[in-house]
Amino acid sequence: MAVGVHIWYHQHIPSTYPIPKMHQVLVRVTHAGVNGGCETFRVRGEHLFAGNTTLDHYLLGAEGCGTIVAVGGAPFPPSSSPPLALHTPVSFGGGGAFGEYAIVPAARCFCLPHGLPPSPHAVALALSGTVANTALQAVAGVRAGETVLVTAAAGGTGHLAVQVAQRVGARVVATCGGEGKAARLRALGVHRVIDYTKEVSLCFLGGRGVGDCCVRLAEFQATHTPIGCHCPPPQYPTLLSNPSTYPFSLP
């Protein structure tokens, strides 16, 4: 243990569990999300996880939430608010959520607002929620009255992107595959739902091509945008998550 790092433990933590280092916390995991993209990339060693191909083992579980049961040193500078402390309910990202306990860098923890307890809803906020919010507000700067196209809109990040766009007053056009997913999107109040198993044209958007912003979460859907539409493409920001190739065969 490094000199000067003080460990605060909940009294019921077994001594065999790992000790958090400076700027780390130990979280008792209560809920975990199965993030298909992240877990797939980790197992295959794709994109940011290419180094996994040379490892004997690595942690799975990109999204989780729970309660802090041990704190190693000061997790944030004294000026941060709110500070992370024992018993704090948090959501977190980065790996390890499939275990009962996870060592998490404090910078990857998000305090749940208003004293809310850990829940399945909180799981999605750490990774999928951050991606959706960052893409639409920090990167694209979506404003009220604009049109946002979200592909794979019924997925984890997609359905949150839909709601972020709606909250700022944007008109949302969403694509998905299957009536069940389309029904869920209509229940969210999406302006126009496109089930790409039934229709393939986005020409109804008028003279602006696909709109002001495109959150593109499924590369395989690119063939469904826009067929027979000859208007020039707009200068819209596009977020494209790293696509994975299907089917996939391990070497």
Describe the protein's architecture and organization.
The chain has 251 residues and is an alpha/beta fold. The chain has 2 domains: 7-118, Medium-chain alcohol dehydrogenases, catalytic domain (Quinone Oxidoreductase, Chain A, domain 1, Alpha-Beta Complex), CATH 3.90.180.10; 128-240, 3-Layer(aba) Sandwich (Rossmann fold). It has helices at residues 36-44, 120-139, 156-167, 179-187; strands at 7-9, 24-33, 63-72, 89-93, 101-105, 109-111, 147-150, 171-176, 192-195, 213-216, 238-240. The strands form 2 sheets. Strands 1, 2, 3, 4, 5 and 6 form a 6-stranded antiparallel beta sheet that branches. The protein has a 5-stranded parallel beta sheet with strand order 9-8-7-10-11, with helices on one face. β7, α3 (156-167) and β8 form a beta-alpha-beta unit. It starts with 6 loop residues before the first strand and ends in an 11-residue tail after the last strand. 38% of the residues are buried.
